[in-house]
Design a protein that fits this description.
The complex is a heterodimer of chains A (410) and B (75). Chain A is of the alpha/beta class. Helices cover 26% and strands 30% of the residues of chain A. In chain A, the strands form five sheets. In chain A, strands 1, 2, 9, 10, 11, 12, 13, 14, 15, 16, 17, 18, 19 and 20 form a 14-stranded mixed sheet that branches. A four-stranded mixed sheet of chain A has the order 4-5-7-8. In chain A, helix 2 packs across helix 5. With 75 residues, chain B is mainly α. Helices cover 52% and strands 0% of the residues of chain B. Chain B has three helices and no strands. Classes of the chains: A alpha/beta (410), B mainly alpha (75).
Chain lengths: 410, 75
């Protein structure tokens, strides 16, 4: 019996999933749930019925949901589950049959400002899914929120290949190594921040992992070396995806390739901002297009006609007395220092230089903070220009993460 | 309060490899006497703001230690 989902202490097989689907009488149009299995089950039911479904992050407060302008009446809307499923092949058939009627609404993580609504069809949300015999034995370590784009990517890939999903997103960090080994996980998909917060708890390498997929943050060499240490047999792939456009590019290391298939729909403008043609996007009323092109807000460096490097989010560049600073660059330098686990560099306003840099840094256990502070400053002084050095350093236990597992930068 | 301000000024000076002060003089100039540059001043104002919730440069850039004390006392 093939395992479908592992979450906390529960294991659910594909057979049990199908039985459960058939027992479920109705589902809501707006899914606002904590339990990841429930979310995915309802998503599947919407797919086989060809219904519209909206996935709401469980950590939206009711206040925030009101601000999304969804009425209480809408929130209570329900659909009847009209389809009975015989087996997994039947499930796939029904999904295919109803895919034109199906619509998925997501809200972007809104790291700056209000979450924006995006509507996707199966073709955009499952754009990069590959179904094949060779994927039959894959077991997925699931480390994303299932209401977000990256989580959905893993879900569709696993579902269409009948692979197990082992949910480790909010599991106790100390138990993850054991869980990965117990379930013979072969593939993990998570943000770099997730890996960074989990790896310090690993005692030994996890050799069965064949592929590590990551994304959502700028490439970091120190980080990649750490991954290679604990996942020695894994191919490491960096994915560029967004809630608006879905999965677009993939990179080994830091250089992203623009496939021939979408080459004419990608542009880099004179400000080095990445632009995507509207035909690649999901639907939204809030996309600001400039002549059919969507400005991603990502600053990139063109390597050649088919390749680029991600530099920073446009909004993340910090202006210090006229000098533009990329906080990622500084975080990368800080993380190279021994005993540093993670760093977050931010701006603090002042009337003299506009901004100065502050840093939140998490250290390994039992490290003297005062000593480290001076060590960090001295180290950075040797490598960076004066205005790039964080002036106020605070040591924290953990760097706060957004709903998509990225660092909170505001 | 003056001791605390001295402490904060010395934190900024020491971290940035500048000579610290033993005693505060109201006439001491942050730039000329203590050798603070723009980044040092920016850091100083942020640290004082964290401690006293006062932006000492709110009404313009000040230069003397005495002016700092004055701004904070006003609140």
């Amino acid at each position: 019996m093939k395992l479908f989902f592992h979450y906390k202490n529960t294991d659910i097989t594909y057979e049990e999933l199908i039985k459960d689907i058939n027992k479920t009488y109705e589902i809501k149009k707006y899914v606002y749930e904590k339990d990841p299995y429930e979310i995915l089950k309802q998503l599947i039911i919407s797919l086989i019925n060809g219904n519209q479904i909206t996935l709401l992050d469980s950590d939206f407060s009711l206040e925030e949901i009101k601000n999304l302008e969804i009425s209480e009446f809408e929130l209570e809307k329900k659909y009847k589950n009209k389809e009975k499923i015989k087996n997994i092949e039947d499930l796939y058939k029904k999904i295919e049959k109803n895919k034109d009627q199906w619509e998925l609404t997501l809200y972007t993580s809104g790291t700056t400002g209000r979450p924006k609504k995006v509507i996707h069809k199966l073709d955009t949300v499952a754009r990069s899914v590959k179904k094949s015999e060779e994927f039959m034995k894959n077991v997925w370590g699931y480390a994303y929120n299932p209401t977000h784009f990256a989580g959905l990517q893993v879900f569709f890939q696993a579902l269409f290949n009948q692979n197990p999903m082992i949910y480790i997103f909010d599991e106790n960090r100390k138990e993850i190594e054991e869980t990965l080994k117990k379930y013979n996980v072969t593939h993990i998909s998570a943000t770099p921040t997730f890996y960074r917060t989990v790896i310090p708890y690993f005692k030994n390498p996890v050799e069965k992992i064949e592929r590590i997929t990551t994304g959502g943050e700028k490439y970091d060499e120190t980080f990649e070396n750490q991954l290679k240490k604990y996942f020695p047999n894994a191919k490491i792939r960096n994915v560029y995806a967004s809630t608006e456009a879905g999965s677009l590019f993939s990179a080994k290391g830091e250089i992203f390739k623009i496939s021939d298939r979408i080459k004419d729909k990608i542009r880099i403008n004179e400000n080095n901002e990445l632009l995507i043609h509207k035909s690649l996007l999901g639907q939204s009323e809030t996309f600001k297009l400039e002549n059919d092109w969507y400005k991603t807000g990502d600053i990139v460096e063109k390597i050649d006609e088919n390749h680029f490097k991600f530099i920073s989010r446009k909004s993340e560049m910090i202006n210090i007395g006229g000098y533009k600073v990329n906080p990622h660059e500084i975080e990368a330098e800080i993380k190279k220092i021994e005993n540093v686990v993670d760093a977050l560099v931010s701006a603090r306003k002042n009337k003299i230089t506009g901004n100065i840099l502050t840093a939140k840094i998490s250290l390994k256990e039992n490290i003297d903070e005062k000593e480290m502070e001076q060590k960090i400053i001295n180290n950075l002084r040797e490598k960076l220009q004066e205005w790039k050095i964080p002036r106020i350093i605070r040591f924290v236990d953990q760097i706060k993460l957004t709903r998509t597992g990225k660092k909170v930068r505001k | 309060m003056e001791n605390k301000i001295k402490e904060i000024i010395n934190i900024v000076l020491e971290k940035n490899n500048k000579e610290t002060v033993k005693d505060l003089n109201k006439e001491t100039s942050l730039r000329d006497d203590l050798g603070m540059d723009s980044l040092d001043l920016a850091e100083l104002t942020v640290r004082i703001e964290d401690e006293y919730d006062v932006d000492i440069f709110e009404d313009g850039i000040i230069d003397k230690v005495g002016e700092i004390i004055e701004k904070i006392s006003k609140r």
